[in-house]
């Protein structure tokens, strides 16, 4: 091959490689409550957990005036988003971005209602609409720290959580028409069994003070999406409760999720009271929520269901399917291998009458692909 043709071939190879890199975009997002009663001792361990996991977006929760300046000065490859302008001390939730990776298309901070008698730091939802510089793909991240329900004001604080969740959903609902991934993260101070999490993940209405709030947005726990057969570990070192969350709209293609329990020093002191959560999601293959509902390859109904649910699967050639159903804890509750279908639409009816009321996740697999999603059983 002469020099001219070699150069031409090399250019073609470089073009293909560049095109792949330009359109393949994975993002790592971390949510980490860095609060600690031993900050002077553990602050370097906190920074080490962040730099070791190397997120592209880092949501720092409980990063108040005592800890935030050290984090800002230590994370030299990141910039803190100025959603609070000249008053970053007004909130303890902040969003850090890897430098030179994103364009901030829009951002803000919305104060959330709490409850009568509350005297702590104001609660906000800090948010940013981000566009990756390399691919132009967009998503929105929201960072929150819900009030805790411990102590003498537990009942009032529970209502404060309801108000925060409702305000967050109202904010997110303003963005659903963009048809881009919406990712809300933080220390919600509530496990999956709490009503506030059922409101967020199950769309279960909540009635308090003679009013009812509803959630119009379908949201999934990123841990379950990435690890459907593994129970979500605790996200705190003390008590091992799972109260920290990264929850996403269905058009977020979550590839992996981890909970980092490392960094305990020689004195058995963890970096923080909480463990860092991190997901990797792929913006290359995200589709709009509207497109998901229009996809005719897989349809399931009714959803929510009571005793039976139908899966209608369209296949282009004869194929065998495995159907797996997992509960909210990641426990496999149903498994079956279906016969080889001929090229057409086929309907599978599953008897779920022995399922408890709640959220479940399905995984349908054949030789070529895996499809996952959320279904809900109710008693109405």
Q: What does it look like?
A:
The chain has 380 residues and is α+β, with helices and mostly antiparallel strands. The protein has two domains: 24-286, Deoxyribonuclease I, Chain A; 296-377, Immunoglobulin-like (Sandwich), CATH 2.60.40. Helices cover 21% and strands 36% of the residues. It contains seven helices and 21 strands. It has helices at 3-23, 39-53, 68-74, 154-173, 195-201, 222-226, 289-294; strands spanning 26-33, 57-61, 78-80, 93-98, 102-111, 124-132, 138-145, 182-187, 206-208, 211-213, 220-221, 244-248, 253-260, 276-282, 298-301, 308-314, 319-327, 332-341, 345-351, 358-365, 370-377. Strands 3-4-2-1-14-13 form a six-stranded mixed β-sheet. Strand 1, helix 2 and strand 2 form a beta-alpha-beta unit. The model is unreliable at 7-23 and 285-296 (pLDDT under 50).
């Amino acid at each position: 091959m002469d020099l001219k043709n070699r150069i031409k071939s090399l250019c073609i190879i470089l073009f293909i490689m560049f095109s792949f890199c330009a359109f393949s975009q994975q993002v790592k997002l971390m949510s980490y409550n860095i609060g600690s009663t031993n900050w002077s001792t553990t602050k370097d361990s906190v920074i080490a957990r962040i730099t070791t996991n190397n997120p592209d977006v880092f949501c720092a929760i409980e990063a108040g005036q005592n800890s935030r300046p050290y984090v800002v000065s230590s994370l030299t490859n990141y910039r803190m988003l100025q959603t609070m302008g000249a008053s970053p001390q007004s909130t303890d939730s902040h969003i850090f971005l890897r430098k030179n990776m994103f364009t901030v298309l829009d951002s803000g901070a919305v104060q959330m209602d709490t409850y009568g008698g509350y005297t702590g730091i104001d609660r906000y939802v800090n948010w940013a609409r981000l566009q990756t510089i390399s691919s132009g793909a967009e998503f929105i991240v929201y960072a929150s720290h819900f009030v805790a329900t411990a102590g003498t004001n537990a009942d009032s604080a529970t209502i404060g959580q309801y108000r925060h969740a409702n305000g967050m959903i109202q904010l997110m609902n303003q963005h659903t028409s963009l048809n881009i991934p919406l990712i809300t993260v933080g220390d919600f101070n509530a496990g999956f069994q709490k009503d506030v999490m059922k409101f967020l993940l199950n769309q279960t209405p909540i009635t308090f003070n003679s009013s009812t709030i509803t959630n119009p947005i379908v949201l999934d726990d990123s841990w379950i999406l990435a690890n459907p057969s593994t129970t979500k570990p605790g996200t705190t070192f003390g008590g091992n409760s799972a109260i920290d969350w990264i929850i996403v709209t269905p058009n977020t293609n979550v590839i992996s999720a981890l909970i980092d329990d490392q960094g305990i020093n020689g004195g058995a002191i963890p970096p923080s009271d909480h463990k860092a959560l991190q997901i990797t999601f792929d913006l290359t293959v995200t589709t709009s929520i509207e497109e998901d509902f229009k996809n005719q390859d897989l349809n399931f109904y009714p959803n929510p269901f009571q005793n039976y649910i139908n899966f209608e699967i369209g296949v282009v050639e004869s194929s065998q399917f495995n159907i797996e159903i997992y509960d909210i804890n990641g426990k496999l509750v149903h498994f079956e291998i279906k016969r080889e279908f001929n090229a057409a639409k086929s309907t599978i009816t599953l008897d779920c009458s022995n399922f408890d009321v709640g959220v479940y996740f399905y995984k349908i697999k054949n030789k070529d692909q895996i499809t996952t999603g959320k279904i809900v059983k109710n008693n109405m």
